[in-house]
Amino acid sequence: xxxxxxxxxxxxxxxxxxxxxxxxxxxxxxxxxxxxxxxxxxxxxxxxxxxxxxxxxxxxxxxxxxxxxxxxxxxxxxxxxxxxxxxxxxxxxxxxxxxxxxxxxxxxxxxxxxxxxxxxxxxxxxxxxxxxxxxxxxxxxxxxxxxxxxxxxxxxxxxxxxxxxxxxxxxxxxxxxxxxxxxxxxxxxxxxxxxxxxxxxxxxxxxxxxxxxxxxxxxxxxxxxxxxxxxxxxxxxxxxxxxxxxxxxxx
Length: 251
Ligand code: NAD
Known about the structure:
Layout: E1 8-12, H1 17-28, E2 32-37, H2 40-52, E3 57-61, H3 67-81, E4 86-89, H4 104-132, E5 135-140, H5 143-147, H6 153-173, E6 178-185, H7 191-194, H8 198-207, H9 216-227, E7 238-241
Parallel strand pairs: 1-2, 1-4, 2-3, 4-5, 5-6, 6-7
Helix pairs in contact: 1-9, 3-4, 4-6
The protein binds nicotinamide-adenine-dinucleotide.
Nicotinamide-adenine-dinucleotide binds at residues 12-13, 15-19, 37-39, 63-65, 90-93, 113, 117, 140, 142, 185, 187-188, 190-193.
């Protein structure tokens, strides 16, 4: 049984999709929650929802591509709960387009949130985790970072960057008992993937060996494992949660 009682957990991009499902899971396992997102309405509504379920939860509204806001986020968790035990770097965006036509703004925006935001929040969090001599950081990569994807050179580069960052952090922080792992989801049904035309969505689903889209809860379960002592000998690892997308003959 996974027990996160008393652990303070921050999830960026926590007001919907995978982030919200992850907070729900961590809260149900006893963690005290920080819902961090840039959308004030959905962030506050999520906190209210969680409080009704009996979870401890606070809101942090901010943009994790900005250094001062990442520092303020981690401080808010420390001030409210007295520790920073779990950080899930989940906030992410897409700005898809073929490389031939990709504007530099689309490149910069995706790298700023997906990769630089992950670096900034991690750097701010380890200040406290190093003093505590404990912590678990889980970064959201993607199957696109492992395989590449047409129309997603910016997104694939950002998510491949998250993989390298995770492995380097795993090595650098192990002596301080801070574990750093990543999850590489395959196709997960959220508002992010709702933007894909239905015909393409169905053909992606059909190419998955388990013959379904993943659900946000599939990722939340993997995060809960990596956040907990059940994974205490795992660091620098990239966990693919993709319905068998890498099996020979898949896709
Ligand atoms: P989503 O778009 O449904 O939710 C993302 C959340 O992040 C939103 O609430 C948004 O407001 C927030 N956000 C965006 N930019 C932010 C910023 N600068 N600061 C703070 N919050 C910000 O996305 P999702 O599908 O739940 O994906 C979550 C993570 O999983 C992302 O990193 C994504 O790249 C990754 N992922 C998703 C899939 C998928 O199929 N859905 C697959 C692989 C990886």
